[in-house]
């Protein structure tokens, strides 16, 4: 009986300790610097690869040397990352760190691919750490015991450092109130590099010991980053104790459930996080401090006169409307296919901008609604009606309804916690898609056809054609106009909403939620409404995709897509509605061009993101204003000055 | 600006415009129902080149397998272009599917619409391959997938899809027979909880049931695809290892490599024989390290086999890339060769004509005489059972073959495939 209980405990502690090491660095980095470091997983992988580079030529015993050398190297890389990429961003909203570190993920991951071969490699461990131990009927490998002991000692050392040294004191103080530490005359900025480097080194240690336990592969960072974030949020951002308790808790609970309730495997950490955040919105051990929002730099469209902008917009639409006419003469039909993709993702990005750019709610789970729309269309077409109108209608309604529910539960928490809780819902949905029969499991739903009409009356796009001179518009080209129409309609509707009193309230929430509340607005209700509209539009985007492509797969709801759409919004310029559409175009355009040149195109894309977020944070739409002074020789409105890093005056009114 | 009647009016205008637009659109559609000219895919007897689109997951978890497969593909194309036996040349572009069905389809569209590909090959993950299955039918291009999912030439088959990759059903045949004969019929399973794992479970189980009346499923544990921690499952399997004769593992790729590595550290291999579907892949053996030693695996291909012109292939491959081919290289290689044979035989590069020709056509392959049989267009590949053993030198486990089933013996009956061609 005792064995039955102890075995899962030992099994769970092994992975739990690794989680602790990962989450501790992540948590302290966030606590002190408010940086959401998506690249943490890649630093973890880098640690394992550096160790591999040492162990392979020198044999198993070099493993112990690697345990110290590799984290040191990764720590140095961490310091460099802080110095040259993160530092220019201090004082801005943590959202920008998502884009920055997302770019870094692409860069570091592709560098790993470049330097080391792809695929899983075994990291040999010293002879002394192999074999198994049998005590009290528990069976465990020596290496597992090593992980628990070594990881435990490392965690203890970090705790002691934080608790009993002067550095630790300053770091802890910094994670509670940066400004206060600064007021005391301590140059906390200097400590940032140290904290970042330490966090990176801890991640590297975790990577090495886990590498010996699993295998080393370029994807290993990707597979741990989400659990690591969940643990950090669960324990409370910035709390070392939280990271320890969260890590061990998740490790053990996951393992126990695998034995006794395997159906929850994969979902448990997200359910746990949602539950904790609803009961304790700042995590188990989070400190109840007011979050420093930092500046959200929305794109400013003030460069052109309203009249000129209107003409430009009409011109753009006219130009877009002409695209299918050039097929066969100017370019191939693929141009239309690519444009459809951009339009659908433009719509998706626009939907996110409506909540992110206008209420400041960063949803890291927007792929949920995209996937929902896609599956609603697929299931409707397969089981209910083949009418495209009914399917799309249902997709919008269902996405809106689920968005209301998710919004109802999520909007009570703010900032990063909101991002994480929406991520949790999206991951639950993703998991569900894999498990349910009606969604076709891991393979998804295929072979879906539709007609454009109602009650069995109406044509399919392949059956009809318009003839414009020598060009026949049919199939894809007709769908292009449907997608374009949907995008323009969505744009006009959302813009109209934003010009209404409702929109003014949304903007006031973004600027200062507290003041909006003081004026008497129930901001939660307004935010929820915005979220519902956003969810419905994202559902429309996903629905349109499936309508055209004829299939839906779980990958639609994968968290990476939520990340990509955030990138598009920031790339284009958030808070502008049209910026994100441009962002989608640039994102796919770049991907299209770069994949043609090199298999390591993510490296280039990632570098572009990093440069972008540092030098052009207001997005592409701000580019004309940035360039105007140079072009017109100093006249013109010019860009608004960027807030200086950590300048207290930026949020002096708080 | 935000209050008063003006915006209200504008909202109505917008609504009016949208309604008017859609009404006009519908009447427009109704009024102009014509039959658009189908663009024919060059149905000419006289041609010098054919265009291939090579779709592989060059980025993502399977990028090493993609590279492996791509090398096989390129080698075949190079040989065909240099050979006098074919009076056409193959031109090709490659595209990165990023292991995502949506991206795969997008790239396939690029290949066909923009670059004029009439033939498509590639995709290692089943979901991407299934998406391209559909795409091939819709766009009437010939497709040779690289995934093993049974349904590709089963329930989801169509006349444009020809598969040289050995299907899970074929591998399950040899695994079930050998396991029942040599190990016993009390089986515990561990599978990855998605289509591939479930199909291994189903395929092995139905065969076990027909082989042995006493067959019993001792237990099944399921891990999420992409899992990296199998301790809990290993503990559960160890608990029932006394009752079971063998553990059948329905996982592949990193999942399998990590599972074997962790099972090895816990000594599970000593408690119960472990039988896998893809443990013989070099990528899996490399990842599992010594965890792969003393496990059994169905074998789709190893370079040692002496069938057909395999040894010439191995030699050419080694000369070109300095490394031995593995399963995916031979799939890429022979998929191209067989389609090229079809094009030559048909005397046409029209995919529909080639597809008709290919179905049931005899080829000389690395596995000897072979065909995409008519009922499901699956290649009649032989399959083997093998054991991964400790090598004389180095870390990478060697594969020793234990038993062989011919193509005829391994293929499921046509009426059981679920394919209606």
Outline the structure in words.
Chain A is mostly helical. Chain A has 2 domains: 2-279, ABC transporter involved in vitamin B12 uptake, BtuC (Orthogonal Bundle), CATH 1.10.3470; 306-596, Orthogonal Bundle (ABC transporter involved in vitamin B12 uptake, BtuC), CATH 1.10.3470. In chain A, 68% of the residues lie in helices and 2% in strands. Chain A has helices at 2-33, 40-58, 62-86, 95-115, 142-164, 166-176, 178-183, 188-213, 220-235, 240-260, 268-279, 306-322, 334-359, 367-384, 388-410, 415-435, 476-498, 501-511, 513-519, 523-549, 559-572, 578-597, 601-615, 623-631, and strands spanning 132-135, 138-141, 465-468, 471-474. In chain A, strands 1-2 form a two-stranded antiparallel sheet. Chain A has a two-stranded antiparallel sheet with strand order 3-4. In chain A, strand 1 (132-135) and strand 2 form a beta hairpin. Residues 634-654 of chain A have low confidence and may be disordered. Chain B is of the alpha/beta class and 421 residues long. Chain B has 2 domains: 49-166 and 305-381, Response regulator (Rossmann fold), CATH 3.40.50.2300; 169-299 and 383-410, 3-Layer(aba) Sandwich (Rossmann fold). Chain B is built from 14 helices and 13 strands. Chain B has helices spanning 5-31, 63-82, 101-114, 126-139, 168-182, 195-211, 231-240, 253-265, 268-271, 282-288, 310-321, 327-346, 351-358, 407-410; strands at 49-56, 89-96, 119-122, 142-145, 186-192, 216-223, 246-250, 274-276, 295-299, 362-365, 368-371, 383-389, 398-405. In chain B, strands 6-5-7-8-9-12-13 form a 7-stranded mixed β-sheet, sandwiched between helices. A 4-stranded parallel β-sheet of chain B has the order 2-1-3-4, sandwiched between helices. Chain B has a two-stranded antiparallel sheet with strand order 10-11. In chain B, strand 8 (274-276), helix 10 and strand 9 (295-299) form a beta-alpha-beta unit. In chain B, helix 3 runs parallel beside helix 4 (126-139), helix 8 (253-265) runs parallel beside helix 10 and helix 12 packs across helix 13. The longest helix of chain B is centred in the N-terminal third of the chain and has 27 residues, at 5-31. Residues 1-42 of chain B have low confidence and may be disordered. Classes of the chains: A mainly alpha (654), B alpha/beta (421). The interface between A and B is large, with 90 and 88 residues.
